[in-house]
Automatic annotation (TrEMBL):
Name of this chain's protein: NADP-dependent oxidoreductase domain-containing protein
InterPro entries listed in its UniProt record: AKR, Aldo/ket_reductase_CS, NAD(P)_OxRdtase_dom_sf, NADP_OxRdtase_dom
The keyword Oxidoreductase appears for this protein: yes
Binding positions (substrate): H114
MF-aspect GO terms: oxidoreductase activity, acting on the CH-OH group of donors, NAD or NADP as acceptor
Pfam families associated with the record: Aldo_ket_red
UniProt keyword annotations, A-Z: Oxidoreductase
Residue ranges annotated for the NADP-dependent oxidoreductase domain, each copy included: 37-283
Marked site positions, Lowers pKa of active site Tyr: K83
Active site annotation, chain numbering: Y55
CDD domains attached to this UniProt entry: AKR_AKR1-5-like
Organism of derivation: Euplotes crassus
Amino acid sequence: METVAKEAVAKTVTLNSGHTMPTFGLGVFDVKDQGVITDSIVEFGYRHIDTAKVYGNEELVGKAIADAIKAGVPREELFITTKLWRTEYSDPVQACKDSLERLNLDYVDMYLIHWSIPELESDQKTIKKTPMHKVWEGMEACVEQGLTKSIGISNFNVQLMVDMLAYANIPPACNQVELQPYYQQEGFRKFCKNYDIAVVAYSPLSAPARPVGGECRNVLEDPTIKEIADTHGKSPAQIALAWNLQLGNTVIPKTNTAKRAGENIEATTITLSEEEVEKISTLEANEKVYDPKDWESFGKIPAFC
């Protein structure tokens, strides 16, 4: 596993901010075991940890990071991402400071606007008047004040990115979106490549426990992916992650077990053939797992990405 860890650490992408980001990370949504995060860093070589204010576990993540640093992992090797929740659009600087306090860190490496949908009034319909260009000014202030090295966005479509690039003094360094074999966003990815915005794929294995269109589609049970996995002597999860990586994306699969974290990161050592990549690419079905149109708290406003 030591060799796997070294290879994983070595794989990075240079962001438009000039900083580097590891292309394989650990998503910690709903992760409640501090040891999983520490072990992922110390034992399996993870250097990219992705959390958010709304996950409610920034303090736990901070303790896990502190334990990893005590175990000998330098802070400068770590890439920590957290996110601005829409209830805090009026003051991103204070929100970032609050996240840093919970994380017990002097800075984060990436600070993201979590969703493009603003906060709603209590009627869950009236949109609060905090325009995105004002929110982005606050994000830029976070960089200027040294609270974060890079800033980015999550769940923004091409139209919103074009608008942002028209007013941003600091362009978004990445856009974090759902991206998996059944929801591939090819046009979105091409735009991001053209404008030097890194793509970070959350839910890169989809989310089999969540129903899509009334059915439960499981990427890990897909016959095409299972066939390729058998050819390589790897798991379907490892193959799906390797496919995403070979498209040039960063991936941040979540897991609640250190064992699974160790298995997932082995995807960084897999090289698929062009034919295998294309076979998986034919699985596109425009089936996304996460969409606010299903969420009362978002006023059932459809997501763009």
